Amino acid sequence: MLIKKHLLECVLIVLFGLKNYTVISHAMAAAPATSIHGPSAPPANMFDTVPGYEGTIAGGGGGYLPPPPPSVPMPEQAPSSPNWHIPSISEDQARDSFAMYVSSKCCYSSDPVKEGVITSMESFNTYRYRLETFMESRSTEWSQKPYTGQPVDAGVQPAPGPWQIAAQPPAFFQEHKQTIKVPYTSSVKNCHVCLGMGRNPCTTCAGAGNKVCWVCNGSGYRQSDDRCMHCNGRGRENCSSCSGSGTRQCDTCHGKRQLLDFINHILKWSTEKDEFIAQDSSGLRVENLGKVSGKELFKDAQYMVYPVRGFPDVSVGQASERLVRDHQVKYAQTSLILQQRQTIELIPITKVNYMWKGKPYVYYVYGNEFKVNADDYPATCCCSVM
């Protein structure tokens, strides 16, 4: 046993150096600790200083990089105003939509549809303005991987600037994300977790290579005072996690002892949207309008859109001017705007007044889908399942 212990001590000194031997030797004699944690994140001074990437940190979080000035000028004038044609629905369409709505309700009688008399129809012009801004954002982060002989190019020549790295964007208004390794930023460093050893003390046995026997709970004997056969009376058993060696391969460098440090460029293409729905006096709840599409009256897409001018509803034009300005202020500072698109939809709302059995009632037909809302439908019944 003394010879084996001496050999193990020599192995530990070779693996971890004389400085670490005292700690590991103590762990062998004492009860194993619950865990041994190495540094979870690389120290800041582990990374080189690369001009143009001074704020880059490991794991990201350094914020988005400001884009270069736009190469395409803002439009100098608004596009010509289209002919704002407002469609309306017929009485037959209103009745057909009402009948379809009632037929979808198991507890609704069809009598009001068949016998009801439409007395009036009122059209309300409700508009939905939408502004979409498609943009590219760039950020950087220091990354690491086990060094296995990859090319090392840091300092060979200056690294290209964050916005000088060419990338192929997706089609307009398509979400996409891409990671590109920045050239001339790769260098090799000793692994900060295992200090360049390639192995770390086992966290299961605290580097001792053995742990308390689970059969005899460390006593070396069974309840019958017989020697424990599982550990041969030692009270401890070899650690299965490290096969009794007391060390395990470093998870960070995978045993390679060195790491390749480099900067990753994260490119993100995204679309930001804002909407405005003009208020109407129809009486239909606004939340219903989010469930339907509208009839497109206007569409404008270009690098930078100009606020809509001359629209019949003044509030739509005001919303367009406000949102176009807000998108410029909010996104142009951190992202490169590639395309904008604005649309105006008419969400048709028809308020239908009808009489049934001498009493007045109302239902609404709205949206491209001719959806119906009839909160006060007069012929409902309570259904029960036997």
Automatic annotation (TrEMBL):
Residues 60-81 are annotated as: Disordered. It comes from the Eukaryota. Keywords: Signal. InterPro entries: Growth_fac_rcpt_cys_sf, SSUH2_homolog. Residues 1-25 form the signal peptide. Coiled coil: none annotated. This is Ssu-2 homolog, related sequence 1. It comes from Cyprinus carpio (Common carp).
